Amino acid sequence: MHLIRRNRILRQSPAIRAMVAETILRPADFIAPLFITEGSGVREEISSMQGYYRMSIDNTLNEVKELWGLGIKSVLLFIKCKDELKDNKGTEALNPNGLMQRSIRAIKSACPGMIVMTDVALDPFSIYGHDGIVEDNEIVNDPTVEVLAQMSVSHAQAGADIVAPSDMMDGRILAIREALEQNNMTRTGIMAYSAKYASCFYGPFRDALDSAPGFGDKKTYQMDYANRREAIKETLMDVEEGADIVMVKPAMAYLDIIREVRDSVDVPVSAYHVSGEYAMIKAAVKMGWLDENKAIIESLSSIKRAGADLIATYYAKDAAKLING
Ligand code: PBG
Questions:
Q1: From the alpha carbon of 275, which atom of ligand 1 is closest?
Q2: Has residue 69 been placed in a domain?
């Protein structure tokens, strides 16, 4: 054979492959989600997310310092609210001394450089486990948006760098931006969960926070996985309303959406490699069917290659360690 083009030339050694690699993961690409619970010295494994823990604030601070040492620049906070503090309106979400607000202050003082992102949605605080206020078995939009805006201001006042509304109510990005402006919080960013699908892959997360919906499902606010154009519409609207970063969620079953969003907006795009995606790898590894380290790097590389600038993942720490060598 006399071939003019031999594609294997650029694959023949680790050095040449490293030279021409198009996608390179960095620890700064990762957002590490953290589950925080009351108490001290608490470190409870989440049964459906093996190797991942709910921690009290003291243990969380050590975790944050370790993540920072590995080159990770952001954490995304979720709190497990006590049952007795839950109601229909998310009252506890606005408590200036609530677990979220105390966690933000503690992390910003222990590790000031770390970008603290906070989940903004009512589900952990809701007796119904829904992301919004319930009236007559419906999740009502506009009253929910008012609470989300106040919640965002409360997080910002506690020191959050970026608020991350994950609820999918209409008009919440504009309402949050206006509320931040009215309260002179002009340095707080908004990472909008813009294309968040109603997905079965959130199952293990709902175990972690005990936040499974008490009735029905989330299909009247989260998106239908049949739809792609709608993701672009949602994302463009969030950018117009003032989102600094937009997100696609989940990640691996939605790589086409990540690419299309990346090509449609001029803000950073994040993707959330969710609890069920983590749990699938963990389960296969436990069965001896997958090499975990290889599965982590291949999965996260594919999400970045699809167009994600940032990846929220429960594998942030493992991946950073693998990258750092
Ligand atoms: C709730 C929220 C969910 C996740 C992040 N924020 C669950 C849901 O929408 O039911 C899922 C994260 C994961 O599965 O890793 N507002």
A1: 15
A2: yes
pLDDT value at residue 211: 86
pLDDT in tens, 255-291: 999 999 999 999 999 999 999 999 999 999 999 999 9
Is 11 a member of any domain? Answer: no
Mutational test site, ligand 1, from 31, 35, 100, 131, max ligand atoms within 8 Å of CB: 131
CATH number of the domain bearing residue 92: 3.20.20.70
Could you give the CA distance from residue 163 to residue 111 in angstroms, rounded to a whole number?
18
Q: In terms of residue numbers, what domain contains 198?
A: 23-324
pLDDT digits (tens, 9 = 90+) for 91-141: 999 999 999 999 999 999 999 999 999 999 999 999 999 999 999 999 999
The one-letter amino acid at 42: V
Q: Spot the catalytic one: 249, 282, 304, 317.
A: 249
Q: Give the model's pLDDT for residue 209.
A: 87
Residue 18: inside a domain: no
Domain count, the chain: 1
The ligand 1 site (C-beta within 6 Å) comprises 119, 121, 123, 131, 166-167, 202, 205-206, 218, 274-275
Ligand 1: centre distance to CA 288 (Å) = 28
E strands present in the chain: 30-36, 43-46, 49-55, 74-79, 115-120, 133-135, 138-140, 162-165, 189-196, 245-249, 269-273, 310-313
Rounded Cα gap, residues 304 and 262, in angstroms: 11
